[in-house]
Amino acid sequence: MRRSEAERNSYETARALATVDVPIAHPEDSVEETIERVLGKKYTSASHIVVLEGNNRLVGVVTAEDLFSAKPENKIRDIMDADPPRVSPDTDRELAVGLAIQRGEYAVAVVDHYGYFLGLIPPKSLLKVMLEEHQEDISIMAGILEPDDKTAFYSKASIKTRVLYRLPWLILGLGGGLVAAGVVTAFEKELEKNVAIAFFIPTVVYLADAVGTQTEAIVVRALAMGESVKISRETLTASAIGLGLFLFSLFVIAFFWKDLSIALVVSLGILLASSVAGLIASLLPKLLDRIKVDPAYGSGPIATVIQDVISVAVYLMVCSLLL
Fold it and tell me: Which of 24, 70, 133, 183 places its Cα 20 to 30 Å from the Cα of 12?
């Protein structure tokens, strides 16, 4: 069953995951009183005891472990976490999971603007979201379009549906390959002068793709977890990796091919292509995230096509300038 846009947006919020069927306590309750109140009752989740005061204003949370390990005469206020992770009802569910991970907690409270309790996202719901989002991101990064129903994974799709998911991205990749072929054709004279430079095109493209893929994985994960992403830092990291590859390839190519000029050109091409790949891989997902598109779309086929074309162009431009 396919959901409307409004239904999908509602489905992916913290409110949709929250339950109010959890144990409730008050700050002045004793541990013994709270345990007696909880025992013999069945809750949707009993991993945490929600501490409320007044008209259901959230003031803390107590884990079941802390409750049952405390002395019976202790007050709930003495053992509760007065600053539990909390989110608004419209918070994206993936950000709620990210907050739980950042805080090292396994439940998240949902409150309104005034701090009044609306529900608790229990551990099993957080784990379910992690699995679904993981499946979705892998599918997107692999160039597999997700159906509207987020619970319907690609593995359950028919052959026809699988082809319709994957073929558009492969056609995009073919288009990118044709553009890359056009770039190579534009440097035909340079290739005729020294055909050896053509031997290293796959190496330059592969290394740039590998650096870009690593960066994409880091950036997409950070954005999914609500963490800040510094494009400059990721680009500098990719450049530092490219520098390491530059030094290694310079030595290896010079040693085996006995041609220092070829070694220098190829190694410099790897350095520049890796740096550019790092920039694209960090910039594209962040731009998509800013316009409210899943950042995972900024990796996989789209980023690969862009990186491949630019890597070939950068490498051949270095060749034409230095050889």
Answer: 24
Residue 161: CB atoms within 10 Å? 14
Q: Which residue segment(s) compose the domain that 110 sits in?
A: 5-127
Pairing of strands 108-111, 86-87: parallel
Contact of 110 with 18, CB cutoff 8 Å: yes
SS3 of residue 57 by DSSP: strand
pLDDT tens sequence across 114-146 = 999 999 999 999 999 988 877 777 766 666 655
Angle (deg, nearest 10), helices 260-290 and 301-322: 150
| Global model pTM greater than 0.85 | no
In a shared domain, residues 194 and 317: yes
Burial class (CB in 10 A: 0-12, 13-18, 19+), 214: middle
AA identity, residue 238: A
Residues 97 and 243 in one domain: no
> What pLDDT shows up at residue 5?
44
Of 127, 146, 177, the last residue of a domain is: 127
**10 has pLDDT over 80:** no
pLDDT in tens, 155-214: 666 788 778 777 887 888 889 989 999 999 999 888 888 889 999 999 999 999 999 989
In the numeric block, which tokens belong to residue 35? Answer: 């345990």
Contact 120, 22 (CB under 8 A): yes
